[in-house]
Write a structure and sequence with these properties.
By secondary structure, the protein is α/β, with parallel strands linked by helices. The protein has 15 helices and 14 strands. The chain has an eight-stranded mixed beta sheet, with helices on both faces. A six-stranded parallel beta sheet has the order 11-10-9-12-13-14, sandwiched between helices.
Length: 424
Amino acid sequence: MSERLPRRVAVLSVHTSPTEQPGTGDAGGMNVYVAQTAIRMARRGVEAEIFTRATSSEQPSTVELEPGATVRFVAAGPFEGLGKDDLPSQLCAFTAGVLRAEARHDPGWYDVVHSHYWLSGQVGWLARDRWGVPLVHSAHTLAKVKNAALAAGDTPEPRVRVIGEDQVVAEADRLVANTEIESKQLLDLYDADPHRTVTIPPGVDTDRFRPGDRAAARAELGLPAEAVVLAFVGRIQRLKAPDVLLRAAAELVARVPGLRERLVVLVAGGPSGSGLAEPTSLHELAAELGITDLVRFLPPRAGDELVTVYRAADVVAVPSHNESFGLVALEAQACGTPVVATRVGGLPVAVAEGRSGLLVTGHDISDWADALGEFALDPGRREQMGRTAATHAHRFSWDRTTDALLGAYDEARTEFAARRRGDA
């Protein structure tokens, strides 16, 4: 192992565990990111210990994702019944659990702290000062950006989060952004230090997410081989805007009545965030639009089951109001399925417009119907763009992401040590 690599990294993910199923609750792309980078660090000889809040009395104290990549469940508040907005009150208890875990070892056990999301950044800030190691922080989403692009009727992010993010941005030794767009947001909205801000795109597991037999995937899901399949994968909440897909599908059927006989709209995911208060809203919308017979709801999928959904689809819709990157878009393209996504956040990076998918500005239903119709009504267009979608996705990999993170850790450690020598 290179001397420049850290021996151990303390990874903080307070509000959601990498062992949770993406697509429901607070689990999503961040869970995938934390798990995949920790596993690949372990394969390079760098131990990654992931601290997350325990949510069940039946959880073990630790779970091994892979030798050298361990998840540690920290008791902080009641196991159940706490939403993400309740967690600031438990940060003291969580921090105590993390510090106690480190105290069982010799001093200098961890070389770097990497926090994910602002809640973890608050814990990482204290751990950094206690352990004398640099803090690397990934925001994943930013309150000021989300509040500027709220879906109608959605609840703004609270002021406590905005303040907390400002504090973490000011304290972190390195800020990791998913795209240059996010880096600019950190600089413009949070006055981040450009020297301490680095852009590292997420990756995709191309060993798992790869093109395959579409007919077999449809047979596995019980879909007709000749169906026109539009899919949404992710958490059911206003931020992700799955309603846009249903409304656009209804518009397509109105334009081309004969399409109804073949159209299937797949929605794979579970309620999250604001969606928890209205868990049947999409079912009710389908009925209101008169397309109940066309919509099939699936529970959240992982692994090969998720691959099956991507392969079965003619196109995957990502109509989010905001995405720091959009891993669903990358996974779908890696499976050879083109994507129609909103032109927001990191999606213009995840989707190569005109080559791997299409980008829509805003949420006008007519515009979305136009874009989806390019694939629904033109199989040749879908096949052509599906091939280039897989090629585009292969530009991203978790190995590249992990190597870049380890480089950022090294720079942060070098500067942190120099600064401490100067202070001394």
